[in-house]
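no rush on this but wanted to send it before i forget. theres a chain ive been looking at and ive put its sequence and its fold in token form underneath. i want to understand how the tokens follow from the sequence so walk me through it. thanks a lot i owe you, the record is right below:
>
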Amino acid sequence: MLTRTKRMAMAGCAAALLTVSLAPSALAETSYTDRKVEYVNDGDTLQFYPPISGSKSVRFLNIDSPEMDGDTQEPWATESRDHLRGLLPQHTPITITTDVEEKDIYDRVLGHVTRDSDRLNTNREQLRMGHAVTYVIWPNQAHFEDYRTAQKEAQDNGRGIWDPADPLTELPFEYRLRVNERVPDKPVGDWFTKKYVDPADYDEVHVNNRIFFWNESDAQEAGFSKCPQDSSGNYDSSCFSAG
């Protein structure tokens, strides 16, 4: 399936994909039925069969689970993986639903994974039980508010990574940036105000309201505008909604 352009840096070289102009609101969902779980890798990735477009790996869309063996990510990473394994044992029949972009740069299918027996959206369930955090990258934005609601339920009940007595101290994407010695490179918008900030200022936007963009052009195409800053670089408070 043709996807929007992603600008990627691999080994210091830029790689461009073929571009097809698709509006962010376009209904581009495709459901792949008659799939079964082969193996759960971690809290947001599993192997399945038969393959989709040559891939047998699915990265769960719009969620991010703690990284396995990460120095700030355990025991939450193992707990997240084990919870997903409980939801989706080997050979469980599933349906994988994709959005505008069907694959990532690692050739993994990007999808929402539904358990066929009861139609449980397991992406949402990982969020609801506090085993993942929302991580929405435009244009794959389906279920934003539903997933946000599930995350708020986990926060309100102190589940998993939101346990006030033992919370996850570094979000998965922050961990990856640190260990890979990278800096933030995606502008971040507030879903409700339709304003965005520079990549380094992502923390200005409440974790429940963040949507990431590959670049400013994508943010503007999605209907977002840059949050105004004063002469000291402070953002206008009207750009940010409550969590």
The mean pLDDT is 91. The domain at 29-144 is CATH 2.40.50.90 (OB fold (Dihydrolipoamide Acetyltransferase, E2P)). The CA atoms of residues 217 and 224 lie 10 Å apart. The chain is about 20% helix and 25% strand.
